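Title: Request for sanity check on NAD-P-binding protein prediction

Description:
We are preparing a figure and want to confirm that the structure record we downloaded matches what your pipeline produces today. Could someone re-run it with the sequence below and paste the raw structure tokens into this thread? We only need the token string, no images.
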Amino acid sequence: MNFSIETTAEQVADTFASEITGKNGLFGSFSVPALTIVVLVTGTSLNGIGFETVRVLAKHANLVIITGYNKERLQLTEEAIKKELPSANIRQLRLDLSSLAAVRTAAAEVNAYPEPLHVLINNAVGTILPFAVSVDGFEKQMATGFIGPFLFTNLIAPKLLASRTSHSGYTPRVVFLSSCFHAVGSGVDFETFGLPMPEKYKAVFEPYYEVKSAAILAAIELGKRTEGRIVGYSVDPGVISTNINQKEENRVYFQEAGIVDEHGKPNLELGLFTWKTMGQGAATTVRAAFDPSLLAQPGAYLADCQVANEQVAPHSSNPENAKKLWDITETLLGQEFRF
């Protein structure tokens, strides 16, 4: 089908159902054991893009791993999916991306799974809140939105690579959730990256823009660091009304920007955005994760279910910036990753 801004995640998943189930014909006429696709999605609470992503993938994938820091929310997500799909194979993983110790604990659990991992979707984002510092001393939005996911991705890379070695010819993927708003900001500030800088919050959305720029750069660099054995993509899901803008503690910022009304609902009178449904918002993620044609474009940025590299701001498409960000993040973590 022709993908567009109106395409839903369900439509994309149905299009690539054979890829998601593993019966994908990736190996031409060769007779090989069937793939049993395993997908891990971070940030899967109800009324979020991650939940919709999990919901449509659970119809086809052999196993979908859902993550979150709140046990009750994880249970609600699993129950909602199984109410619709009783046969869905769901596994819960506690993961607090704001804590390096918690990330390491969760990664160790994933690495102990008997199955390889085929796709990692870094969907979770740091909530737009007043200035805060993580337990490890990082600016909390960057810690949750990028540093934690970066560490998690690298620590479970052996599981991703296992899917490649267990099925010769398969290329595992990592999808990073970014945003078109990355281009509004000035990119990653390498001088203050990850450091607690309350002055940045004079423009409350600036740290968010920086996180989204970092996501694009990481997707570009991942394939280079792994020499193509894992490919990364970044996606702009679009503007969607989710649990982020509806939370009372976040609503004030979106109201001040005129994005939502006093009830946290989309301000359609503003006319600046084309608001998407949850299904339309998750569509681009699903395509990045499973469209086989994208393997020819590692590191690509997708928006409205299309490759949209031309929409990436220069500060977030520069390969030197991608390398620099990776190196700086390793330095902050005190750990180098080799594949």
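Thanks, this matches our download. Residues 206-225 form the longest helix (20 residues).
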